[in-house]
Structures are given as structure tokens and as C-alpha cells.
Amino acid sequence: MDWHQQYIGKVKHAVFHTQKTGRKRVVVSTEENVIASLDLRHGEIFWRHVLGINDVVDGIDIALDVITLSSDGSTLRAWNLPDGQMVWESFLRGSKHSKPLLLVPTNLKVDKDSLILVSSKGCLHAVSSIDGEILWTRDFAAESVEVQQVIQLDESDQIYVVGYAGSSQFHAYQINAMNGELLNHETAAFSGGFVGDVALVSSDTLVTLDTTRSILVTVSFKNRKIAFQETHLSNLGEDSSGMVEILPSSLTGMFTVKINNYKLFIRLTSEDKLEVVHKVDHETVVSDALVFSEGKEAFAVVEHGGSKVDITVKPGQDWNNNLVQESIEMDHQRGLVHKVFINNYLRTDRSHGFRALIVMEDHSLLLVQQGKIVWNREDALASIIDVTTSELPVEKEGVSVAKVEHSLFEWLKLKGTLMLASPEDVAAIQAIRLKSSEKSKMTRDHNGFRKLLIVLTKARKIFALHSGDGRVVWSLLLHKSEACDSPTELNLYQWQTPHHHAMDENPSVLVVGRCGVSSKAPAILSFVDTYTGKELNSFDLVHSAVQVMPLPFTDSTEQRLHLLVDDDRRIHLYPKTSEAISIFQQEFSNIYWYSVEADNGIIKGHAVKSKCAGEVLDDFCFETRVLWSIIFPMESEKIIAAVSRKQNEVVHTQAKVTSEQDVMYKYISKNLLFVATVAPKASGHIGSADPDEAWLVVYLIDTITGRILHRMTHHGAQGPVHAVLSENWVVYHYFNLRAHRYEMSVTEIYDQSRAENKDVLKLVLGKHNLTAPVSSYSRPEITTKSQTYFFTHSVKAVAVTSTAKGITSKQLLIGTIGDQVLALDKRFLDPRRSINPTQAEKEEGIIPLADSLPIIPQSYVTHSLKVEGLRGILTVPAKLESTTLVFAYGVDLFYTRLAPSRTYDSLTEDFSYALLLLTIVALVAAIFVTWVLSEKKELREKWR
Amino acid sequence: MEKGKGVMGSGRRWAVDFTDNSTTPSTRDIADPPGFSRASQDQDDSTLSRQKKDAEANWKSQKAWEVAQAPFKNLMMMGFMMWMAGSTVHLFSIGITFSALWQPISALQGVGKVFEPYKDSKVDLLGPKLLFIALNLGGLALGVWKLNTLGLLPTHASDWVSSLPPALEVEYSGGGIPLQ
């Protein structure tokens, strides 16, 4: 029923640990700020730590423990290698930002203590690897030198620190690593200036670019002298126009330059001349140099060739020689190779073998050894952007094997309940239960529990996960068009969900992306079939997309109409068919859209005006006009949250019946927007403002008319605000500075203009207009009720359960700071709670008021598991009214089924239908037998 | 109701008639007991039968009134049981309420049958019947009242609106914070 999957994200850096006997492992850091130790044999996680969202890992290495540098070089931590326990943590201070560098020299050892050198924030720190004590610090920022490299001289305790002051002054310091004593300082100016990364070619030579990016500058600082040597790129026979950059690498005597879309390997000859060794396209990836057996070096080059990937391991400095050449078949859904890390091992014949850890474009991680993929991890699933669901295909007619199996299982279960089962039968029952083929079938089930979860990841890869067991059904790396080389994906929408008319069509999803990161960038639309996982279509649009609105209308093939709003406030209708336009034109005057400009503090409402006027006549483009705007005073209010109701939410009834048989009419409108603003002073983190200068104002706004329905100020409160709007209520979470605690407030909205409808006779006869369509322009009068409670946890995400008909009571799903999901009954957040509820109110289920919301350990839906890096919670109704499906995602994935009011409409899985049937049959037989007997007896009586 | 049948109904098997109205001479052989006067019997046969019929009619109407009043006892008992059952909905109170509803209804259905044995041209059954019906209606009313106190009658507005779907909205709006 539940499943939980652990991921790590796209690997940034990997360090192997294979020297000693015992478990071979690779320690990795990822773009999701995860540090993990992976089993090199199977790719499983030994241990893992998810650092905070701002705690970006800058470097990782293994000294005695695993050493990580994070938070822009300000935090240095050591983790125990076998179990991942944190050994120590040091904070490194500095005044200025500089490139964070981590260096763990191999031979600088005092007793057992080895030294860790960290250059960050303008300073160089030497840290003890045993307890993290800072042994010495040298401030380079004081001399306004920006450190570029820290270099260890071979086999000595001296280090070189090189850096720039300004853009043209080159500094080289020679330092005793043991005590931080400055041995020598050389400086020289280079008129051309420096730009970009530096590549270290040998321990006393490095290469960088001048500010024109057309000249390679070789800087050597041998023998306490700095010498510059310029080599024009055109002298190497290369066209230097375009984007030139030096790629960071650690190959000895060689470095890599990327020019436009190809890469050059350039070697430094013994006469200090540069020569091009090899020229490859930009898809080729090179690993860092690996030192194996007595100073021999090797590096790996990975090239693409059709559906294959060629891995070549070459000895250092010798391009034409190959140590290993392997070619492996690669799934084209994995895209290009992004990174490669190599490691060596000793074969049984004492020769050296190499294994490569490859990071692909789709963020997957593969271990390749002897031309085979040993294991792979789909780590794109650690970076989900958006999730939607899709139904599975309907089961075909005919008796399937599963059905026969199922009836067999029923008989076995019956035997078990009647205690007739032999030990073998019991074992068989257990085995079937464990396997439970029922839950992972690829067809729709009666209760609607089996679904496909379609997830869009940062890697531009879409996965379909089976809700039964969480396996990947298909995955698709979105097609990259020539016109756009850095597309980003934004959101997923259900494009076509056939259920009535177009049953033979497969459902499909719409993926909206944009080419680039700015909001003006042109949009990209992709349509993906959710059964087959094929990309049906893909368009590069001319306009941008800042908003996507799925309309509540579908065409004859059940394609949902979507409106895309571009940054010029024009709206574009999709699909571009004449049918869609005729549907749209019927509803033309009833379609509105609103924009929340959080930076300017403005909310605007727009209506569709007319067709676009432009040179190119576009029938599907419409101009809009501003209808209303709400401008928040910039000096006192700043928008921090805007939440609206889920468009697909189903509400069962508009009336709420209280204990005295009284009726309250809920104000149920989909065009309702909850906005929270805070004082600009208090918009920072908690503690940055006094309670007196902090306030939180919440608004409920009708998005058609712009009318503010409700406004409330919480003095001494500040964000972050997490809110959920459902039915006629909104629940929001914020921090109360006066009470030093988090609070949750609930506001329920009731329609006062309907309150008069209480005449039973009229209601019986149906003479009321309660179900007649309503317009926001009728200005319904509303009343609100609110209540506030303390809540212990800070919150990462809030969601609410949703069921098929909306009858079942609701639960709030709160993603806590501990990365767990807590289910809290909505009954606890009811503004009608009072300290002493009357008997009638108690019968209705009103809980006596308490100042804080209870956290019942059993109500954690994630049990003891953690959804590390929790970002979102999705709830989907099952077909069974009592049940809702919950999918929580972050770095980990978690899926479960919830029944907020218990499963009142179904029997448990353990229920033995066979026993029920048997009982009925036995009863019928007994009735028949007794009837016959009584007839006989009566006849005998009559003869007497 | 059953009792009336037992005494006078068709189910009677045998009876001893102590009024000897035989006129056969054979019985005259035996001397009358002292003090017995046959004269009164001999007087007029017709008066005798009329008297007898009157007595029967009287008796029938008396019985009919009795039967008509019988539901009153029932009513009292029902009332007591209902009071005992309380006003919360559970198995006991539901059972009592439904039997309180069912009994009067079944009695009203069989109102003709109940009074059939007392049917007589001389007996006016309208009064007892009306009383019977009235009492049973009273019982029915008591049952309905109980049903209402249990909250099982749709007499409140809330009973009629609790499943009203939300009204449709004319306008549609979408949007929000621009996509990041």
C-alpha cells in the first residue's frame, strides 16, 4: 500500500573509497545538497545526509573521514566513513566572497592528524582532520587578493597559493603548510588582465585566459619568479571568435578549452609551448586524472557514437595510447554524458582495471565496468518539479491468469480462516500476499487505487510511476529542438483525459517549458501520451508563457482548452482548432484572469477584450484589458503568499448543518484568492523584526470583481505563510513573534445572502434558487468565522485530502520541518470550537477548544520514514469515496492511501468472500432442510 | 379482539343452555322441582326470543365498546415504553418507535374484521369504530411524534438542503503568481 523511495539527485562530485578491504564505496555530493555513500557493488545507499536548501556543497574529499565544504565555503564538516555520523563541524569566517576550495593533501601528516586546507571567504584555513580545529588562518582578502588555486608542491610541506588582485595583478605565495608561515611572496602584473577559470597544468604552471578571451596565458612561477607567456588561440589554428572558456580539470600537462561547441585538448610541451592534442565536439566528457600505482596517471574520455557510448581510459600525457577501450549500449532516453569519474582496481592477474561512474543528462548515475553497466540509479526523481496523475488502461475482456490466481487465493484464504490450511498453504498465502499482483497490475481497478503518477523533473525527463509499487513504467527525456539549447521545464497539465466520448484515445499531458530562464523567453509545448510515454508533438512557440490556465471546457475529443498568457498580457488559446475557438467564443465574456505581481505589490484582474491586432492575423490570440487592480502600499505590505482553490476540487454540498438543525450556507467559489502580506521589515527570517513592527494581513479576494471579501490583521506575526484554500475555508500557518510560536488560523466563509432560505415547504417543493448559477457580480453578502491555534512545528508544505465526491471529512496534510507528513483532522481547525461545547455540539463532533493543535504520533502518515527535502504533497481522489491517494515528494518519494473517515465504504483486504458465500449457502440449505422436516411432521400430525 | 371471538364467534364448539325451552311432553313426566314455575316460559315464546335478542345485542354493543377502548391501554403502555427508551437513536428506541407506528396501522387496516363479530342490525357500531380509529390514530401520532423527537423526520430546512450541490458559477477565472 505504501512505498518509499530514496534518491540523491544529480551527482556533482564523487570520491571513491576502494583501497582497503571491506565494503567498496563511493562518496558523492549532489546538486540537491545531498552527501551520500553508495555501495559500489549495487548502487545502494549506505548512508545519506540531506543538507539544507542553502547549504550547497562546494567540495568533498576523504581524509580520515569524509570531509565536506558547504555554504559557500563557510561550513566544514567531517562525517564518519562507515556509518555517516557527523564527527565534527567547523565554521570558517571571512570577510569577502571568494571561490571555495578544498584541498586534502595526502602526505601532510603530524602523527595521525592530517591537514585540511580550505580557501574560502578570502582566507586560507588549515584545519585539523581529527577534531576540526582551525590550526592557522591567513587572510588574503586584506591584501585584496582573490585566491584562485591552492597547490601542493610534490612531497613537501610547502604549498602555493595563487590569485589575482584586481584583474591583472598576479600573486603567488609560498607557505609552510604546517604553521602557515609565509616563505615567499611574488607578484607580477599582466597588462591583458585575467578572466575565467584557471587550469593547473603542473605544480608550478597554470593557464588562464586574458580579458579578450582570445589569448591563452601561461603563468609559470618556478624558482620564485613569475613569467607570463601569451599564446593566441588563432596561432593554434583555432578560430577564437565566440565563447571561449577554460574548463576546470586536473590533468597533468594538459588542459581543456571549450570554444563554441567543441573542446580542445591542449598540451604544454617541455619547451613551454602549447600544442593542440585533440579536438572533439562538446558532447565529449573527460574525467579528472587518477593516480594509480607509483605515480602513473590515467584519465577517461567518454564520447558518443550513435546509440553507443565509448569510454576510453588513457594514460596521462599520452593521447594516442589507450589503457582500456570499451563501448557500451546506452538508452537514448538518458541523453548525453555530463560527468565521468574513474577509479581503478586490481584484476586477479595483477593488472589494472578501471571502472567509471557516469552522470548522464537525465541525472542518472551509472557504474560501468568491463564494458557493462553494473548498476544505475534514476536520480532525476530527486528533483521533481510537478506531478499529475493519469488513469491506467481499462482491462480487456476475457479471463486473465490473474483472475484464476485470484480465486485460488480466495480458497486458500478460506482454508486459512477455517484452520484447515497445511503449513505449505500458509506459506503460499504469505507469498501471494507479499507479491500481491493485484496492486501492481497495469490496468484500471474498480476502486481507482491504481494510477500512473506522471512526474516532471528538473532533468527535463518525465517519468510515469505506478502507484501500486512505485516502479517506473516509462520515462521520456524531452526532445531538445535545435532552436533552443537551454530549455527549462515549468509545469505539467492534463491535456486529454478521455472518459466519455473518446474512449479509444490515450490520455495525454501537456508540458509547458520555456527556452531560457527569463519570463520573456519563448514557450515550448510538448504533448506526451501517458500510456506509451511517447512525445506526440512539440512546438516552439513565438510567444512567452507567464501563466497557463486550464479552462473548464473540453472539445469533442476531450482535449482540455488551455489559455497561455504571455508577458504582453495577451492570451493564446490551445488547442488551435476551429472547434476550440467556437467553444471559447461562447464563453468569451465569462473568462477572466488575474495576475499577482508580488514584487510591485499589485494584483490585477483582466478580461478578454478582442482579437490581437498585429501584422500576422492570429485567430487564437486575444487582447485583454485591466478590469480592476488592488495596490498594496509598498511601505507597509509585501505580498508573500497567494493561494487559490484547486480547480478540480469537488464539493458535495453547499449547506452546513449545525447541531440545532440550523443551516449555514457555505460560500463556495472557485474564484477566490487568498493573499497574505507582511510588513516589509518583517519579510526576512524570523527574529529579524520586533513584534511591534511586524504584522501579517490576510485577504480573501474575489478574482472576478476584485472585491475584498475579508481582511484580517495579525499583529506581531510574520511569515513564511503556508496556506491551503478548500471548500469554504482557508487554513494558514505563520509565526507569532509575541508568543514565540507558530500559529495556524482557520477562516470559514459563509454566504449570508442565502441564509434566508429556511422555509421547509419551499425547500420541499423546490421553490428556491439555491442551485441556480451565480455570478460574482451579484455581490453576495458573506460572513466569516475565524479561530487561531498554536502549532508546534514549522511547516514545509500544506495540502488537504480530496475525495471523489467530497463527502468524506477532510484532513490537512502538513509537511513538517522533520520531513514527515502529518495528517490533522479539519475538525481541530473549526472556528465553532468553544471551551465548553454543549451536549448537542459534542454530538455533532465539535472538539473542546484548546490553545494548541494536538500532534498525535500515530497520525504521521509517513510513519517512521522521512521524505528528505520535502517540497510538495499531492492528493488525488480514488474512485472509492472514502479514500484519497497521497504522494509526497522531495529528494525522496512517498506514496500512501488515506481514508480520513476510515474505509466506511469497503471491506478490508483480509475479508474472506468465500467464507461469506459458504455461510450463505449453508444457511439456505439449512432453511430448506428444516422446511422439509416441518412439512413431514405436520403431515404426520394431521394423520394422527 | 381475540377474546371477543372466543366467546361469541364462530369458533364456539359447544354450549350448555340452561334455559330449558323444550316443549316436548316427555320432559313433563318428571315433576317440576318445588317452587319452579313453568308458567313464565309458557307465557309467550316470541317475547322470550325478543328478550334474548335484546340481551345479545346489549352484550354485543357492550363488548364492541370494550374492544374499541382496548387500544387506549396499548397507548398508555407505548407511551411509557417511549419514555423509557429516551430520545437518542439506538436499536431499542428505533424498535419501539417502529412497533408504535406499526401497531396502529395494522389495527386500522383490520378495523372491519375486529368489529365483525359484533355486527348486528340492532347494534350501532359506528361509535365504537370511531373511538377505535381515533385511539389508533392517537397511537400513530404518538409514534410519529417519537420519530420526530428522534430527529428522523425531515421537518427542518437542514434536511432538505444537506445534499444540495453547490451552485454553478457563471464566470471563470484563472491565474496567480507568474510561473517561475
From TrEMBL, chain A:
This is ER membrane protein complex subunit 1. It comes from Citrus sinensis (Sweet orange). The lineage of its organism: Eukaryota, Viridiplantae, Streptophyta, Embryophyta, Tracheophyta.
TrEMBL record, chain B:
It is found in: Endoplasmic reticulum membrane. The keyword NAD does not apply. Residues 1-48 are annotated as: Disordered. The chain crosses the membrane at residues 80-105, 125-145. The keyword Membrane applies. It holds the Pfam family EMC4. One of its GO terms (cellular component) is EMC complex. Keywords: Endoplasmic reticulum, Membrane, Transmembrane, Transmembrane helix. It comes from the Eukaryota. Belongs to the EMC4 family. This is ER membrane protein complex subunit 4. It comes from Citrus sinensis (Sweet orange). The lineage of its organism: Eukaryota, Viridiplantae, Streptophyta, Embryophyta, Tracheophyta.
